[in-house]
Amino acid sequence: MQFNHNSATETVVSADYRKLQALLEQVVAAYSVNPRFCVPPLACERLAAAGGKVKVVVLGAAMFAHIFVIQASAHVEIVGVVDDFKAGTDQRFYDYPFITSQAFEELARSEPIVAVYGCRTDFARRHFKRLCLRTGVPALTYEQSLRWLAIDPTSDHRVADWGGYIAAHLGEFIGLAERMADDYSRYTLYSVLLSHLTGDLEWILNAGKPYSSLYFRSGLWTLGQNERFADCGASIAESTSAFIDVTDGVFEKIWMIEPDEVNQKVLTSFIDKYRSEYSVVPKGEIELLKYAISDEDGEMPFLHEGGHNGHLLSSATGLENCRPVAIRRLDDILDQAPTLIKMDIEGAELGALKGASRYIAEAKPKLAISAYHRNCDLLEITRYIDSLRSDYKVGLRHHTEERWDTCLYFY
Asked: What is the pTM of this model?
């Protein structure tokens, strides 16, 4: 039984989340019978015929291309990566050559291959989709490729397959939908779950909002001009920059909380520039706090990679950029109660919220919490906030063209 976004065309028009709920229940039933239900049959046939070493071409060289190669190179024979701009140069993708779209078509006519999307944008995916339709090559998204090869990268929770967890906790997800304050949040929840279960990114595209709407333009709240903003996972200042834009630069304070040493240099320069540019107009205070946050004080190994890639590790590694960082509770490092807390900290959100329990219980700040790093985040984060205060409204939005940036809002 095949499920895709066209199964709910009427749903897309009417935004009737209950039709999506019924479809989700059908998809869970199909998953329970066969987790590969969403994989193109021809891909399964070619995998079986090749005796486990089917030839694969990766379409694009963005983040999920890297993840797929690392996870799947031992299971398949990767013969090339399609990138028309890098093909013909001396560059290689790991040990694999870049090839052109034309070379892909020629290869597809000469031998049975399977394609896996490694691109990031919907524009690129549509180009590759047309390429595969013309050549009859089955094309899989990243999550479909995990089901196809029966692998699950559980060593990194951020890229794991959510299918089994969703199926096992379907009733709780339905309960979460009923807990939400608006129908669009329910519609978003079911669309996100359907995308994870089927591997079909069209579900996310149907419900998603632009990346520029992340945190501060969800439509669920507006910001005043006396906000005190705790930017947990300040990274390279994207969120703080957006916050300053939305408030027209009028606020009380921003705490930029970031443990990554590479990012700290970027944030220090950002703060210096801000103070210089706003020297003749009223401005709020910005402070950089060089900590990771959790529910207890301590120290843990951290991978200092810069950008959005740094994260806490359960144990030290031999990597040069693995160095310990100090961990503190949010309740203990701010000099006053925040009015807004944002968290995007690579799966450490629940522990960090526990470390902010006093502020949440007593001051009821608005919360914008990333809920896509772990398959349990949507349920466990909401349950925890409800245990502190039962009077929060709960909303959900998705803000990219891929599996990243599903955000829970409490207000």
From this structure: 0.93
